[in-house]
Amino acid sequence: MPSKRSQYIDEDFSDQVAKAVPEQIEAAAKGKLDEAVDALFLLEKQARRAGDMQSCCKLARTIVKICVDCQSWKQLNDCLVLLSKRRGQGKTVIQEAVQEAMSYLDQLEDMEVVLELIATLRLITEGKIFVEGERAELTKRLAAIQESRGNVEEAAKTLQEVQVETLSKMDMADKLDYILEQTRLCLDCNDFIRARILSKKINLKVINKPEHAQQKLRFHTLMVRYYSHEQEYLEIARAYQAMYNTECVQEDADRWPEVLKLLCIFTVLAPHSTEQSDLLHRTHELKNLADLTTYRQLLKSFITVELMNWNTINALRDEVAQLPAFADATVAQQLWDSLRLRVVEHNITVISKYYSRIEFSRLCGLLELPAADVEKRLSDLVSTGTVYARIDRPKGIVSFLKPQEPSDLLNDWGRNVSSLLDVVEKTCHLIQRENMVHLPAVEAARKRRA
Q1: How far apart are CA 236 and CA 248, in angstroms?
Q2: Nearest to residue 82, comparing CAs of 99, 102, 97, 100?
Q3: What are 220-252's pLDDT values in tens digits?
């Protein structure tokens, strides 16, 4: 019975290939490289016409190997191009030749030879779906070489040539690593717009899976870099929250305290909003925060509806300065100024809840700020809709009482009247019930006296 392989080929060249390969390798080693390559190409042509792709693959790998062994780099590139352009060449043959050539990249010491070989292989794999994975790997290698030479922008541009999300044969973990590398290079060359576009290619549902924990940490670390440039402190806090919720971080006793500290700091640095308040309360309820007394007290100060003393917060500066985000002096000063601003905003919000009207001089005294700074901060909060306030400059009075619209006033009056009528009706019902309870006793007493 014929074998399964023989059913698909016209002639089996495996025996001829097995005999010719050692002979031609030996001939090439003796300096007859051209004759050996020509003989192997002739045999490859016969096997290809007969449909023996397995023999063609072996011959293609042998041609690449003897060129590398003889260090004939120009002939290697020519042979690779010739193999890929042969009429009726099988996909597996091209793929095997490319993979064989790629296996020698790490062994080559001459960087110019490596670059020429990568350029040839990228030319061969261009537009071929069956070698899309190999092309992506070659592009990544080329970008790494360019980055090592200091051409970060060129490396970022090279790596962006690959639309890795469309590659069907690449594993999800490899896709995530590829996109993260593209994002990192964009951030390194300060192309923040393109970095944001690339980061949106990552599906958060996929990256939150346990098997992609390392990619998740890399992703949020890169997002912290991006949001730091944009000064979006709430998004930075969310990134640290996602990192803290990762299992491998919580199991690392040396890592989770640092991440939790940064989460606390950037949560209070974020401007006041509903989302920021929710994140603030959620972070304050974390059990591990009990071990970080200083940061727990900091969050509690922003949650409690009481005035905060800036000198108390400023005393934490030396401890907070040890965090990585405060390593750069300029950035640290900018973050500390933002924290000062958040304390002032918190105090103004607290004052607006306790006072309906207050003298402007008294407000400046409570905030411990000059009049110009108080007016600016108050105006900013009014502009964002955080508080309602009106300043009467001639009288020097700040009013936090929001005037009601006529329709709202009528609605309140109607609700008050309805509430009053409900109380009157309930009172009448209680009086009637008491009368019914005590009426038999009253009647009995009258009859006894009678």
Answers
A1: 20
A2: 97
A3: 999 999 999 999 999 999 999 999 999 999 898
Q: Which two tokens stand for residue 104?
A: 């020698």
Buried b / exposed e over 228-265, threshold 16 CB at 10 Å, is beeebbbbbbbbbbbbbebeebeeeeebbebbbbbbbb
Amino acid present at 132: E
Retrieve residue 93's tokens: 């043959």
159-194: buried (b, 16+ CB within 10 Å) or exposed (e) per residue?
Answer: bbebebeebeebeeebbbbbbbbbbbbbbebebeeb
> Judging by beta carbons within 10 Å of its beta carbon (0-12, 13-18, 19+), is residue 386 exposed, middle or buried?
middle
List CB contacts of 246: < 8 A, sequence separation 6 or more: 213, 216, 217
Instruction: Quote the CA–CA distance of 27 and 18 in Å, as a whole number.
Output: 15
Spell out where 243-354 has E strands: none
Q: How confident is the model at residue 143 (pLDDT cuts 50, 70, 90)?
A: very high
CA 79/CA 280 separation, integer angstroms: 64
| Predicted TM-score (pTM) of this structure | 0.80
Which of helix, strand or coil describes residue 304?
coil
Average pLDDT on 16-33 reads 84
Per-position DSSP letters for 72-105, written without gaps between them: -HHHHHHHHHHHHHSTT--HHHHHHHHHHHHTTG
Name which of 373, 313, 323 is nearest 348 in CA terms: 373
Three-class SS string for 334-355? HHHHHHHHHHHHHHHHHHHHHC
222 backbone φψ class: left, alpha, beta (φ>0; ψ -120 to 50): alpha
**Contact status, residue 269 vs residue 339, Cβ threshold 8 Å:** yes
Q: Per the structure block, which two tokens stand in for 19?
A: 């005999």
Check residue 286 and report its DSSP letter.
-
Task: Tell me which of 409 and 84 has the higher pLDDT.
Answer: 84
Q: What is the pLDDT of residues 361-378, one digit of tens each?
A: 998 888 888 989 888 988
* Burial environment of residue 449 by CB neighbours within 10 A (0 to 12, 13 to 18, 19 or more): exposed
Q: What is the mean pLDDT of residues 146-161?
A: 92
- Nearest CA among 226, 144, 149, 128 for reference residue 178: 144
Torsional sign, CA 222, 225, 226, 231: positive
Give the HSE-up count for residue 379: Cα atoms under 13 Å, Cβ half-sphere. 6
